[in-house]
Design goal:
- The radius of gyration is 19 Å and the shape is globular.
- Helix 1 crosses helix 3, helix 2 runs antiparallel to helix 3 and helix 7 packs across helix 8.
- The chain contains 10 helices and 10 strands.
- It folds into 2 domains: 163 residues, Ribosomal Protein S5, domain 2 (2-Layer Sandwich); 105 residues, 2-Layer Sandwich (Alpha-Beta Plaits).
- A hairpin with a 5-residue loop joins strand 1 and strand 2.
- The protein is of the alpha+beta class and 281 residues long.
- Strands 1, 2, 3, 4, 5, 6, 7, 8, 9 and 10 form a 10-stranded mixed sheet that branches.
Length: 281
C-alpha cells in the first residue's frame, strides 16, 4: 500500500493538571491526564537524496533553529546515521500558545513518520527518549495512547477513558508557558490524586487562576463556556474546552458563540489518529 501523503499531528487536551512540586533544576513536578483529539496539524514529507533537512515554508514567528519539526528530523537523522534528507511541509491548524500540544505533536509525527520513511527501525522506546529531548509532551504523542502522566509529564501510564465530543474555544491571545510556570502565585503543592479520584470528579488545572488573571480574554471564554458545561483550561492555555455527550450537543453550543470568537468541535480519542496512518502505510 502506498504511503499516506498527509500525516496527522493531533491535538491533545489536559483533562486536569496539578503542579505537585518543583525540582532543584527548576522543572515542575506534575500530574495530568492526556487525551487526543481527532483534529490537528498535518505534515507532508518529500525525501531528498542530498541529506538536507528543510521546511517548505517558514512558520510565522519560528526560526529554523527553533522549529521542532526540523530539530526532530535532524536528531533522528544523526542518531540513526541516515544519509537521506527531507523537505517537510506543515499545514498548521492548531494555534501556538494554545495548550493543545501542536509543536510537540508535530515533532512526534516527524519522528514516527521519518522512522518509517527513512527505514531507521528505531523502537518506540528509543523514539520516546529522543522526543523527551525535544519537549516534555513529545513522548505521549510518540506513544499514541491516552495516558496518566507524572514527573515532568514523561512518566506515562496508558488509560482507557470515555471518548466524548469536545468543544474547544480558541482565544486570540498566545499564552506563555514559561510565564505561567514562573508566576509566583502559581500553586506548586497540590496533593497527588489517583485515576479513581479523577473519575470520581477530582482534579483541576492549577494554571487556570494564573491565566485568568493575566489573560482576561481567556477568563471570558471560561466564564461563557462554564455556563453551558464544565469548562476547563488545557495545559497552560489559552484554549478552553468542555465535554458533551454528542457531536450535535457540542455543535449546538458552538453555534451560540459570539461572532468575534472561534472554536472547533472534535472527538476525544484514546488512540492517536497518527497510528491509524501508520497502520495504513
Amino acid at each position: 500500500m502506498s504511503l499516506p501523503q498527509r500525516w496527522p499531528a493531533p491535538a491533545k487536551l489536559n483533562l486536569f493538571l496539578h503542579v505537585t512540586g518543583r525540582r532543584p533544576d527548576g522543572y515542575h513536578e506534575l500530574q495530568t491526564l492526556f487525551q487526543f483529539l481527532d483534529f490537528g496539524d498535518e505534515l507532508r514529507f518529500r525525501l531528498r537524496p542530498d541529506g538536507q533537512v528543510l521546511r517548505s515554508a517558514a512558520l510565522a514567528g519560528v526560526s529554523a533553529e527553533a522549529d521542532l519539526c526540523l530539530r526532530a528530523a535532524r536528531r533522528l537523522q544523526a542518531l540513526a546515521g541516515v544519509k537521506a534528507g527531507v523537505e517537510i511541509t506543515l499545514d498548521k491548524r492548531l494555534p501556538m500558545g494554545g495548550g493543545l500540544g501542536g509543536g510537540s505533536s508535530d515533532a512526534a509525527t516527524v519522528l514516527l513518520a521519518l522512522n518509517r520513511l527513512w527505514g531507521c527501525d528505531l523502537t518506540l522506546d528509543e523514539l520516546a527518549r529522543l522526543g523527551l529531548e525535544l519537549g516534555a509532551d513529545v513522548p505521549v504523542f510518540v506513544r499514541g495512547r491516552a495516558a496518566w502522566a507524572e514527573g515532568v509529564g514523561e512518566r506515562l501510564e496508558p488509560v482507557e477513558l470515555p471518548e466524548p465530543w469536545y468543544l474547544v474555544l480558541v482565544p486570540s491571545v498566545s499564552v506563555s508557558t514559561a510565564g505561567v510556570f514562573s508566576a509566583p502565585e502559581l500553586t506548586r503543592d497540590s496533593r497527588r490524586i489517583t485515576i479513581a479520584d479523577f473519575l470520581s470528579g477530582a482534579g483541576r488545572n492549577d494554571c487556570e487562576p494564573v491565566v485568568r488573571a493575566r489573560y482576561p480574554e481567556v477568563a471570558r471564554l471560561l466564564d461563557w463556556l462554564g455556563q453551558r458545561g464544565e469548562a476547563r483550561l488545557t495545559g497552560t492555555g489559552g484554549c478552553v474546552f468542555a465535554a458533551f455527550d454528542s457531536r450535535e450537543a457540542a455543535e449546538g453550543v458552538k453555534a451560540e458563540l459570539p461572532p468575534a470568537w472561534s472554536g472547533f468541535v472534535a472527538r476525544g480519542c484514546n488512540r492517536s489518529p497518527l497510528y491509524r496512518a501508520l497502520e495504513e502505510a
